[in-house]
């Protein structure tokens, strides 16, 4: 079996390796790294694509964008209906104001449609590079098990280069896709702890998403209300990172760790604000309430 595969490699494998190389180079020329994507800066490229995670984010993103599209299409249908009625029996100024609203919604719908098509195009290119990389990897493994020869060594070198190029292209596409993820507006809604929270207690909440950080301090007042020095923070979604939340209690100069949890952002890509209650302690005696709007 190894001998027959080696005979096949001298012609067919080189053709496949060259086609892989051409495809990789072609995609790399058309995918320039966006300036807004930090991990594409020199010396900071992530060389570990995660196709399964990218697929989850893509599906959630597309679903959320379609939700926005449906909502604005429904608004356009409503405004168009009013537009027809207004044209027959209403003031001219109100008619033109309604016409402006319709044109504005139409422009936004076109932007959403372009956004969706761009995301789909990027993901399709990503899947192609992923399949090319898998094929080159499988051939590389097969060649490594075949009898050594000059032809097999040349093919191995070529296939190794193809794997590297496909991996690089996948990283660039992940960066381009990440730019299209929008923003998460995270609002602090306070701690929930029942008997655990007492007037005068002070807490620090630290939220991290990749390199993005949000540190805020709060105090439990005598009427059981809470005051926080910040109430809202904007985070840029990340394909690979989850939200990490750390809560500590401040007692004079000492700090006591209450708990550290992680929170996936996969469910945040939706039109409606998401109310989140996170168990900070293992028993759930202290919870953190947040609201996320995408």
TrEMBL record:
InterPro entries: FAM65_N, RIPOR3. Residues 1-294 form the FAM65 N-terminal domain. It comes from the Eukaryota. Signal peptide: none annotated. Belongs to the RIPOR family. This is RIPR3 protein. It comes from Platysteira castanea. The lineage of its organism: Eukaryota, Metazoa, Chordata, Craniata, Vertebrata.
